[in-house]
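Researcher: I'd like a candidate sequence for this fold, 316 residues long. If you have to choose between options at a position, lean toward the conservative one.
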């Protein structure tokens, strides 16, 4: 009948009564649970922190730290999930109310009926396992959403948001290790003409091919190729000096040209080409990554105005 795997479940039993501890723990151990014992609230808190149980059984009335205060402390430690089963005296309505308001999940009354304990424990563990599974699924879904939110749907590259997150992170990291951070900005030449001649859906296909070629060319782990917007791409190269970055930029420019995507309305080449701006900086506190973007943009503008299909470099 039972769907839970008792062997993997750990129960913390906090009770000052030696007889209760012995009877309950023996009964739960027979069900396959691992039982951790504590004889007062303080010991219970320490055992909780050490063993992280799947369920807590706690007596309401104990010396030093009672069951109600124990519950409150567990909640203060940030645990909202572990079920707490409080042991109260029979027909003590006030204790039952206090147990719930202190954060207990359920209660059982003394004198303890062992089969009631076993059933309640199994039910609560099953419920909490379901909640944990659902939380895990939610966390996974959230993570996937976050990844999607940083991804450009056309090219599957990082989008502007992913780029911003990444360059900020690498800016901070390079500042700490005092290493250069390089940025390459690429822009497809005469792309408006391309769309006009070959139509927008083919423009999209062209951008996908460009993106794939860039990703194939920029292979070092830590490098990030992003779609900066429209027909502009950005490549972040951490720990890369200006010589290295310029050589990557040249490789990318050549790779795109070598795709030989026909572009009859380009005045620089019969194929699709890109213009590329490169900039390198050793991050410091006196400026931020916008300075690097600005410099790479200026270099790109230079490459355009000097005739396109070329790389231009600017050191900040
Ligand atoms: P330049 O050589 O100076 O860069 O000229 P250009 O025509 O490439 O520059 P401009 O900025 O005038 O035009 C960019 C074009 O890119 C215009 C826009 O329609 C096109 N574009 C931007 N995003 C997309 C997209 O997602 N798909 C397609 N097919 N075209 C896009
Ligand atoms: Mg542009
Ligand atoms: Mg362009």
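Model: Candidate sequence:
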């Amino acid at each position: 009948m039972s769907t839970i795997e008792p062997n993997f479940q750990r129960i913390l039993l906090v009770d000052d009564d030696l007889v209760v501890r012995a009877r309950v723990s023996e009964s739960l151990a027979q069900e396959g649970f691992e039982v951790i014992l504590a004889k007062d609230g303080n010991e219970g808190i320490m055992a909780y922190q050490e063993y992280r149980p799947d369920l807590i059984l706690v007596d309401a009335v104990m010396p030093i730290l009672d069951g109600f205060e124990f519950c409150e402390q567990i909640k203060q430690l940030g645990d909202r999930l572990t079920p707490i089963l409080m042991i109260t005296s029979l027909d003590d309505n006030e204790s039952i109310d206090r147990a719930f308001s202190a954060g207990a999940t359920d209660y059982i009354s003394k004198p303890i009926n062992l089969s009631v304990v076993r059933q309640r424990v199994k039910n609560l563990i099953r419920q909490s396992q379901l909640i944990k599974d659902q939380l895990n699924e939610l966390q996974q879904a959230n993570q996937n959403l976050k990844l999607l939110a940083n991804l450009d749907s056309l090219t599957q590259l990082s989008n502007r948001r992913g780029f911003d997150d990444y360059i900020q992170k690498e800016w901070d990291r390079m500042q700490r290790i005092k290493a250069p951070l390089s940025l390459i900005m690429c822009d497809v030449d005469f792309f408006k003409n391309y769309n006009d001649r070959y139509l927008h859906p083919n423009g999209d296909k062209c951008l996908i091919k460009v993106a794939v070629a860039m990703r194939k060319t920029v292979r070092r782990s830590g490098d990030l190729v992003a779609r900066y917007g429209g027909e502009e791409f950005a490549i972040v190269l951490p720990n890369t000096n200006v010589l290295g970055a310029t050589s990557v930029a040249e490789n990318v420019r050549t790779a795109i040209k070598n795709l030989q995507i026909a572009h009859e309305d380009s005045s620089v080449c019969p194929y699709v080409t890109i213009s590329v701006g490169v900039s390198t900086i050793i991050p410091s506190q006196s400026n931020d990554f916008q300075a690097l973007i600005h410099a790479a943009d200026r270099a790109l503008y230079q490459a355009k105005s000097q005739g396109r299909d070329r790389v231009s470099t600017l050191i900040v």
